[in-house]
Amino acid sequence: MYAYIAFPIANYQQFIYKIPAHLTAKIKEGICVDASFRNKRAIGFVVSITTTTTFKNKIKSIDNIADTSLQLPHELWVTIKWIANYYICPIGIVLKNAVPLLFKEGDYSPRSKLYFAITEEGQRQRLTLKKKAPKQFEFLSLLNQTSSPCSMNILLEKVQSASQIYKKLLDKNFISIIPEHAMNSIELLKSRKIILNKEQSDVFNIITQSMNQKQYSPYLLHGITGSGKTEIYIKLAHEAIARNQTMLMLVPEISLTPQLSQKFIDTFGDRIGLWHSKLTKSEKYKTWKNIINQKYSIIIGARSAIFSPLMNLGLIVIDEEHDSSYKQESSTFKYHARDVAMIRAKHSKSTIVLGSATPSVESYYNALNNKLSLLPIKSRYNDADYPSVSIVDMKQGNNRFSYDFSHELINAMKECLSNNEQIILLHNRRGFSNICRCQNCGEINKCDNCSISLTYHSDGSLICHYCSKSYSKPQKCDICDGIDISLIGTGTQKIELELKKLFPEITIARMDFDTMKNYNHYKQILNDFESNKYNILLGTQMVSKGLDFSGVTLVGVINGDTNLYIPDFRSGERTFQLLYQVCGRAGRNDKTSKAIIQSWNPDNAFIQSATQLSLKHYYKIALLDREQLFYPPYSKLFRILITGINRKQVVSSADTIKNKLQGEPDCIKILGPSIAPIEKINNQWRFHLLIKADKNKISTVHHYLANKIGFKTFHNKTKGPKIEIEVDPISIL
Questions:
Q1: What's the CA gap between 92 and 252, in Å, rounded?
Q2: C-alpha neighbours within 13 Å on the C-beta side of residue 109
Q3: How far apart are the first and last CA of the chain?
Q4: Peptide bond into 20 cis (omega under 30)
Q5: Mind listing the pLDDT tens digit for each residue in 627-646?
Q6: CATH topology of domain 636-727
Q7: Which residues does 655 contact at the CB level (< 8 Å), separation at least 6?
Q8: What fold characterizes domain 198-381?
Q9: How far, in Å, are 61, 348, 374, 718 from residue 36 at the CA level?
Q10: pLDDT digits (tens, 9 = 90+) for 417-463
Q11: 291-296: long-range contacts (C-beta < 8 A, 24 or more apart)?
């Protein structure tokens, strides 16, 4: 007996090994084994088993079956094989990314996080330290302000030399250490009782019936913002646990959804495991082992959590299924977690729920065609009213208070602040100004490495938001020596400065990539905003995702057009989703609320749809556009991207690929090669070809590409331009 084994390398080849007699009964497809590979001990997976071989050279034997904790559930293994085939990627690369711990040398000793709480003695003695030990006083004061134990990470951010101070305070019995394992059980909302309304109950009952039947059942939960989807998810989690099933819940970015994660932790405590890319090796190791040992009933995480080795999987939830962050776009491994989740649910005979107030065009189309069962929720939780939404035409000068603010928005903010109510402002451009231009010749400062204009930041630097390279603001133009260098456009920094001038007495929290240093910082800002420490929350698209604040009665969009004219077929979809989602952050209480969208293109169909909260109108327009242009969901889209430091070589490689693809079948249309909309990133020139195919002919495309080009082309590490292929790209920039 022989086995073909895949190792974690960028190679489509699988390597043949003998199966020792004592392992014959144990070796099965998908089993993780130890074997000698390239004169080293390696771990790989058995892809297939055969009784004969034509291989003439010496064949090595499998050493042993790997540690049982490294074995995958069968349905996960089958899903991984599907990924390799569908996304045209070596299965070893899929395994390396999906199960990273399997291929790391050595073991990791999990490192416990430290959490501290102030003791009664510390509270009594705190003030006595103010003069004689100010750093100790600062440490204790921070703990005194928090209602729950504080992590060392937060203390290190806030208090200088915290790692030394805590030892002195421990010796004095002023603080106590809370074990990490106890944190999940602290302040559990044991009395929390979720009462569903009629619409929620109907949805809940339909889904639980499917869970009882233990068969593949896909649903699209289309609930408007504030409809209480999270409450349904929590009730479903209770049902899964009661049935001795596990639940996997994917969120777009775990760092941007702390409120949702916390609700689950508060309810289920240490039954919850978190999985995301920010975990350390030790944390991943510990979490993986706990999943394998069935210590977790629920896993919550970002896209990579789809590979969690959960046993007896009964329910998968994809929250905000429309979000683009579910697409993994690394150069070696590209997949969409939502689509992978559908396949995993099918093989595990699980119920899967895709939830969103603004479903992706593809998911909505699938619901219309009965590939997903549509579960609508049309009213808000606790009968809260949806905010009234208005649009302001910024082209009309009499509407503008300033270039960035309309009279309507300013007046609404004044009224809101006078009533001690809170405001969320969205502006999807960070920095101070997005263009630095010579007024004499019109030259715009661009990045040397990327074909992107530089953004001016308030610290005086010009930064490329693609490669992060920083420049000093020029004193004169490099082209004409002109000295009139102007800053054009508006970013969140400029908006914040203008707000402080208009409302000097208020407090503002700004959330963008520049201010959010880590997850804890983000969470702290949200906690402070919820505690009414800030009047205004200003940010980029971060403020549109998953936030639930009862004090917010006004949402303002500074410029609703920022994503509208990006040269990508999804730009209209992203514009609508962003505007609709952020408007839904208001009206979470019994007070009258409103949303104001400022736009320079108020007649645009996507902006009008968002303003009118007309989902049906939006989907009608979007689907018509996609059908006319033969874009998904009416076709399958492939993108071949050619990149390199030498532009001529990139162009030549693109032309060569085009020539090889001559004679395509009738079901395939090839566009290009052409310059990518962003021509250069990180000093790499970029050309691409787009392949559109009949949506039921993906296997035909696979065979066509394999015969014409060969899959090895896409993972070739030789010198010269790199050639990548992406199936179902969500962006063609």
A1: 26
A2: 0
A3: 49
A4: no
A5: 999 999 999 999 999 999 99
A6: Alpha-Beta Plaits (3.30.70)
A7: 673
A8: Rossmann fold (3.40.50)
A9: 8, 33, 51, 26
A10: 999 999 999 999 989 988 899 888 888 899 999 998 999 998 889 99
A11: 292/69, 292/71, 293/69, 295/270, 296/246, 296/271, 296/272
pLDDT at 184 (0 to 100):
43
**Candidates 1.20.1560.10, 3.50.50.60, 1.10.10.10, 3.40.1440.60; CATH matching 2-103:** 3.40.1440.60
Q: How far is CA 598 from the centre of its chain?
A: 27
Q: What is the number of residues in the chain?
A: 733
- d(CA 263, CA 665) in angstroms, rounded, equals 52
Residue environment code for 526-558, b if the CB has 16+ CB neighbours within 10 A, otherwise e: beebbeeebbbbbbbbbbbbbbbbebbbbbbbb
Report which residue type is found at 649. Answer: Q
Count other C-beta atoms under 10 Å from residue 581's C-beta.
24
Give the position of tokens 């009949």. Answer: 694
Cβ distance 228 to 377 under 8 Å? yes
Q: Which amino acid is at 733?
A: L
H/E run at residue 329: strand 327-329
Per-residue pLDDT of 243-299, as tens digits, reads 999 999 999 887 666 678 778 887 887 788 888 777 777 778 888 888 988 889 999
- Burial degree of 160 (CB within 10 A; 0-12, 13-18, 19+): exposed
Q: What percent of the chain has pLDDT over 90?
A: 50
Distance between CA atoms of 688 and 644, rounded to whole angstroms? 12
Q: What angle do CA 336, 340, 345 make, to 5 degrees?
A: 150
DSSP 364-432: HHHHHTTSSEEEEE-S-GGGPPPPEEEEEETTSGGGBSSSS-BHHHHHHHHHHHHTT-EEEEE-S--SS
Q: How confident is the model at residue 180 (pLDDT cuts 50, 70, 90)?
A: low
Q: Would you identify the CATH topology of the domain 384-431+490-627?
A: Rossmann fold (3.40.50)
Tokens standing for residue 608: 């009008």
Specify burial of residue 524 (Cβ count, 10 A radius: 0-12, 13-18, 19+). Answer: middle
- Residue boundaries of the structural domains of the chain: 2-103, 115-178, 198-381, 384-431+490-627, 636-727
Q: What is the Cα 381 distance to its own chain's centre? A: 26
Q: Which amino acid is at 569?
A: F
522 token code pair: 């983000």
The amino acid at 359: P
Closest CA to 255 of 510, 578, 518: 518
CB 367 within 8 A of CB 572: no
Neighbouring-strand partners of residue 28: none
Pick the closest to residue 595 from 608, 606, 582, 605 (CA basis): 582
Strand partners, 557: 426, 597
Predicted pLDDT at 691: 96
* Cα 423–chain centre separation: 25
Domains 198-381 and 636-727 share a fold: no
